Amino acid sequence: MFMWAQESDLRTEPSYYAVMKTVEVTDQLDSLLAVGIQPQSVVSQPSEKAQLGMLQSTEVAARLETQVGGSAPVTVTQAERQVQFLSAIVESGGRDAFTFRFNPSNIFTFSCTEEIRGYCEPLIDAYISELVSMRTEAILTGLKNLETVLRAALIQLPKNSGNVDLLSMQAETLSAAQKLNLVVPAVISSSVVEEGATVTTVKGGSYRFGVLIGAVLVVLVWIQMAITDSRIHGKRRVLQRFPHIRYLGNNDGSDASLRYLAASIGFQATQLDVNQIRLVPLSDFSHSELQHHLQTALPTLSINLSPPPVSMGVSELMSSSESADVIILQQHVDRLNILEAAVEALENSGRRLIGITVVSR
Fold it and tell me: Which residues pair with 19 in a beta bridge?
């Protein structure tokens, strides 16, 4: 009854809408390993880098705007490339040998800011469909080209060759794969933010009612902030907040996860031409066991543990051409705001970041 008595012609409308959607676009090429075909032997044409350039072009923008019947600026960004661990073997002498490759990230973020919300959302969906279509056509071309190569090789081989049956099976598999749903998009997150609300035709009753509601909202927001869980439980939150920083995987203490982490660090250290790696935990948990394993797996590097960034002195924040940092998060304990502050401090001081790993034990 009170709210009804205070009713007036108070109206608020946002000045613009900020729409964002993050999508993971994956292919099914790993299934080719079942018949002995390496996924990287399927060469997409055009390349994934070229596809991103085409997607960001004005020609595609004009075509999609005509398709949805509205115009809005859509920005497309791709997360940084990732290292994929392939295998690890123990060589004579007890040293580990790793095999890995550099893969483009499959995570894309589409963002749009416009006064009319009805233009942004269908345009973003159209961009996602265009990306899936581009990726599918490029993979199909790669499958067809590889099938052609295999069938040409079959013609040249003697019929009694031991490779005929294998190549025939692989060629038939490539032919069948062309009929499958090769590219699958998955929405990681989406959001719509209303910004710059404007108020029109306000009467006295509306002011009093607005003050009361404002006070209630302040209390509700305070309660929500008090109970909101900002702890980091997995990789999704890290990838969403820091798409430009490499995610080095979850480390649960298993041999496989430790080998993967060592392989990733070793590869990045080579790329950055550094010989010292500093493990930077966000909290006071002991990571001496992890340090010992990495030092054993990477004997050519110096692996050191640092205090949390909040405890670092000026000298520990200074940049170095010979070292780089790996941030260690304790799963279910460390919080996003602490990670944000640590990344900002390290980046502002010129420190080089190899990536972030989450320890789940």
Answer: 112, 192
